[in-house]
Design a protein that fits this description.
Helix content is about 5%, strand content about 55%. The protein is elongated and about 55 Å long. With about 190 residues, the chain is mostly beta strands. A hairpin with a 2-residue loop joins strand 2 (about 25-30) and strand 3 (about 35-40). Strands 1-4-5-7-8-9-11-12 form an 8-stranded antiparallel barrel. The two termini are about 20 Å apart.
Length: about 190
């Protein structure tokens, strides 16, 4: 059974840990005649709520990028894109998560890619807390933002015969996250 969120808090106070099995971080970018999509398989995050203040910290392992092609995955880990050897993680940190009403949230944070940190504005939704079958509380946080990848030093491109770039600069990042706060019973 879900409970209502208070008007001024994202979640009940405490530390909420990411459930990585039921969470994902994806990206989308226009490429050639369509949209190219990928996912980071190894992610971590923690949501901390103290009173009316909520903060979020998250990571994604570059080596875990999944794009359904081994060669392309290797290219994404090269210096042309994420440079996994020198920068093995993407990081996000936010100290200000605000409720906008009707379960909508606005998040001002910093995203770090290839060692470059830039402020980002993220929007999304949060679900009211729900008890799971194992005695834990859960919430869902769905976030999205669009960044210019070249701001982070990710500037590889391959021009088309027309001279236009094959890969767009704008990348949409989508995070569907479930957080768990352990209850009194053994968590699952």
């Amino acid at each position: 059974m879900a409970t209502e969120l208070q008007a001024d808090v994202v979640a009940p106070a405490g530390t909420w840990n990411l459930d990585p099995v039921h969470s994902r971080v994806d990206f989308e970018v226009r490429y050639l005649a369509g949209t190219f999509k990928g996912e980071f398989q190894e992610i971590g995050a923690q949501l901390t709520v103290e009173g009316e203040r909520a903060s979020l910290a998250g990571t994604a392992k570059v080596a875990s990028v999944d794009v359904k092609d081994e060669n392309l995955s290797a290219h994404l880990q090269s210096p042309d894109f994420f440079d996994a050897e020198r920068h093995p993680e993407l990081r996000f940190a936010a100290e200000d998560i605000r409720l906008d009403g009707d379960g909508r949230v606005s998040v001002d944070g910093a995203l770090t890619i290839k060692g470059v940190s830039k402020p980002v504005a993220v929007t999304g939704t949060v679900t009211a807390p729900i008890a799971d079958p194992y005695g834990n509380e859960r919430i869902g946080l769905n976030l999205t933002t669009t960044i210019d990848r070249t701001d982070f030093g990710v500037s590889w491109n391959n021009p088309l015969p027309s001279g236009e770039p094959s890969l767009a600069n704008d990348v949409t990042i989508l995070a569907g996250l479930q957080f768990v706060k352990p209850g009194d019973e053994t968590s699952q």
